[in-house]
């Protein structure tokens, strides 16, 4: 009966649009994103049920599950490296990293809330070792992976396929599950190799967060947050490293390297081990969403002292990188993904986005506080000196719902 009701509710875009309009103000109120350690057992159960529902449900007009469509989009942004008119990754290593992923999380959260309106994306506080224990529990996102032994510097480590939690029975689409070194498929299993050297420096220190939040320039802040830069002992921004966001992908996924001490890590990697470290298709591991919720929380925390549009580059940053530039795939058809190599198989898998569903970095600057809040923002802390299912929303409807929320908020502001 439940499956029948679900099918009836998602059978047409018209039905979905009705749900968007009738529920957006009453049910889809301001969401609170919480630290994973504060979630109740019921909140965990609701979150994993929503995850599993969109992983096992295909919307009308698509051939892959809703969850897989989100992963395919993340693959797609990498395809622009091979598109002659672009030539670079439009959402990683660039200014749009933070706003693009903010919108990406909002759309994903909307999909979860179309299963259960009470669900929000919790965040993984990188500085608290208890967070990872909660995330990797059997009743949440599953274990550290089993079945494979990796030897690093003479020491054996265990990892492999995740066999517990909501993901235990997930089958990944091999066309979508692509690794970045050789652009080859990683198969159908979700794998983890947690805290295997050189990705064993965890948790993140409070000093690293303090240094991050003390940066005044957005471009430097983005670089340090994403993890391609760091702050040295003299307070200077240093490039050519692998820290924070980037490094923590490896903490979960793992990878083999030629030299454990070499920086930066990516050119030194010889093999991607787990799903989360395959940056292209890393959203296949649901830890990705908790990880990026913390990325967004840290940006929202930084924005408290750096509010508004003045701190985001208005021009001079390349294709789809400036304040008012539309961001693919919400760009009105401005860019077309590359069909190079394995990306050709993805072209029919990308969800259709209406041409009037346009999102720019400016549109998401004030999303925290308008569309969701965090239970606790990060701040500079003193550090001691060392010694109910309403019907799944299709991509078009999710975009419309987000647009309606923003328009309603802006309308209220203009009248006040």
From TrEMBL:
Keywords, in A-Z order: Copper, Metal-binding
GO MF annotations for this entry?
metal ion binding; oxidoreductase activity
Tyrosinase copper-binding domain sequence ranges: 285-296
Record flagged with keyword tRNA processing: no
Q: Which Pfam families match?
A: Tyrosinase
Q: Which family does it belong to?
A: Belongs to the tyrosinase family.
Q: What is this protein called?
A: Tyrosinase
Q: What is the originating organism of this protein?
A: Aphanothece sacrum FPU1
């Amino acid at each position: 009966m439940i499956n029948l009701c679900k099918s009836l509710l998602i059978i047409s875009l018209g039905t979905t649009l009705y749900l968007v309009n009738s529920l957006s103000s009453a049910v889809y109120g301001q969401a609170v994103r919480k630290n994973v350690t504060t979630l109740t057992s019921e909140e965990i159960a609701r979150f994993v049920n929503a995850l599993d529902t969109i992983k096992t449900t295909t919307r009308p007009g698509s051939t892959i599950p809703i969850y897989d469509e989100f992963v395919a989009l993340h693959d797609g942004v990498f395809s622009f490296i091979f598109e002659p008119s672009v030539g670079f990754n439009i959402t990683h290593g660039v200014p749009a990293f933070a706003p693009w992923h903010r919108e990406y999380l909002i759309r994903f959260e909307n999909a979860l809330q179309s299963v259960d309106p009470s669900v929000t994306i919790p965040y993984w506080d990188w500085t608290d070792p208890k967070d990872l224990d909660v995330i990797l529990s059997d009743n949440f996102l599953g274990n550290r992976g089993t079945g494979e032994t990796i030897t690093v510097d003479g020491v054996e480590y265990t990892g492999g396929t995740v066999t517990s939690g909501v993901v235990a029975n997930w089958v990944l689409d091999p066309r979508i599950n692509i690794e970045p070194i050789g652009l080859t498929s990683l198969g159908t299993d979700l794998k983890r190799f947690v805290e295997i050297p050189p990705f064993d420096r965890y948790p993140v220190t409070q000093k690293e967060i303090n240094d991050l939040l003390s940066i005044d320039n957005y471009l430097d802040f983005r670089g340090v947050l994403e993890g391609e830069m760091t702050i040295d002992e003299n307070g200077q921004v240093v490039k050519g490293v692998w820290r924070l966001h980037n490094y923590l992908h490896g903490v979960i996924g793992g990878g083999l390297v030629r030299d454990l001490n070499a920086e930066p890590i990516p050119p030194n990697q010889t093999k991607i081990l787990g799903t989360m470290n395959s940056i292209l298709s890393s959203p296949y591991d649901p830890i990705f969403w908790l990880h990026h919720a913390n990325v967004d929380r840290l940006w929202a925390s930084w924005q408290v002292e750096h509010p508004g549009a003045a701190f985001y580059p208005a021009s001079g940053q390349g294709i789809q990188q400036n304040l008012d530039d539309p961001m693919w795939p919400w760009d009105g058809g401005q860019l077309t993904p590359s069909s190079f190599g394995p990306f050709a198989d993805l072209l029919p898998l990308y969800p259709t986005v209406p041409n009037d569903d346009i999102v720019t970095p400016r549109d998401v600057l004030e999303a925290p506080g308008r569309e969701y809040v965090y239970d606790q923002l990060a701040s500079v802390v003193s550090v001691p000196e060392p010694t109910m299912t309403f019907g799944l929303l299709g991509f078009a409807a999710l975009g419309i719902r987000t647009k309606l929320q923003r328009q309603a908020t802006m309308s209220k502001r203009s009248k006040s």
